[in-house]
Design goal:
Length: 285
């Protein structure tokens, strides 16, 4: 114990529990004697008691902290949650949580059935990647961590609407979804893509996606979405798409040149819009 390395023993509950059990019956007979013996390491009686209580928790709970670590503050929170909901409920919640990439505070919040805490100032914010989120949901269903989107969103702190968007976009035809780089495709991109599909129809978006897939090159999500909206680029007219809430906006940009008539009129613009939206008219029938 003189050569103990790492966090102070008083702040390392699992290590303290191991030390206590190793010395029980030889170096001390109870928690009080252990605390007196380990006082030079800053250990108090309450530290010993807390360490033993948290070390006796279900393995499913303790395994959540193999990456983030388990400190004294974590132990206090776990004991509080166990006291409030019971050991079985705590273990059940633990089995439904994916620990990868989460801090101890985020895990504790999820065990407490709350949304994850906001990242600290200066810390790296969490990125909401729809395709990865949808895959996590499917894997959780397969592993019996949850059975509904509502349950998964509550346990993981994802948000019902954001999870619904992620799942909806993941179910689109592969010819569409495979155009996007998963790590660059955001929640906003997903909402715009779904708005496009609702507006133009999945068959038209899929046709444009197939045309684009035959053209090699790396493109940003915004460029891909514009192509899905307007199809092959015209030298005189380019289409851009933008969605905010339930409103999708298609912008037509025209290149002015000396050989062209001065300005496209309203009737021509209306015809262009009708042509672009033709597939959605067919679907509405």
């Amino acid at each position: 114990m003189e050569t103990y390395i790492g966090k102070p023993l008083s702040r390392n509950p699992l290590a303290l529990a191991t030390v206590y059990r190793d010395g029980l019956g030889r170096l001390w007979q109870n928690q009080k004697e252990a605390a007196e013996s380990l006082a030079r390491f800053g250990v108090k009686r309450e530290d010993v008691n807390r360490a033993l209580r948290v070390s006796a928790m279900p393995a499913d709970v303790l395994l959540l902290f193999t990456e983030s670590g388990l400190i004294g503050r974590t132990a206090r929170e776990l004991i509080r949650i166990e006291r409030a909901i019971g050991r079985e409920a705590l273990a059940r919640r633990a089995r439904a949580i994916a620990k990868e990439g989460k801090s101890w505070a985020e895990i504790v919040h999820l065990l407490d059935s709350k949304s994850p805490p906001l990242p600290e100032r200066g810390g790296k914010p969490q990125v909401d990647l729809p395709f990865a989120r949808a895959r996590q949901f499917v894997e959780g269903v397969a592993a019996n961590r949850w059975s509904t989107m509502t349950e998964a969103a509550k346990l993981q702190g994802w948000g019902d609407k954001r999870l619904a968007v992620a799942i909806a976009v993941s179910k689109l035809p592969p010819v569409i979804t495979e155009l996007f780089d998963e790590k660059r495709f955001t929640h906003g991109n997903a909402k715009t893509l779904l708005a496009l599909v609702r507006t133009l129809g999945v068959s038209k978006v899929a046709r444009n996606a197939k045309l684009l897939s035959e053209q090699p090159g790396r493109r940003s999500p915004a460029v891909i979405l514009d192509y899905l909206a307007g199809g092959p680029a015209d030298t005189d007219c380019k289409v851009k798409v933008h969605a905010v809430g339930d409103v999708v906006t298609l912008s037509f940009s025209f290149k002015a040149c000396a050989t062209r008539r001065n300005l496209i009129d309203v009737e021509q613009l209306r015809a262009l819009a009708i042509s672009t939206l033709a597939n959605s008219v067919q679907i509405a029938r």
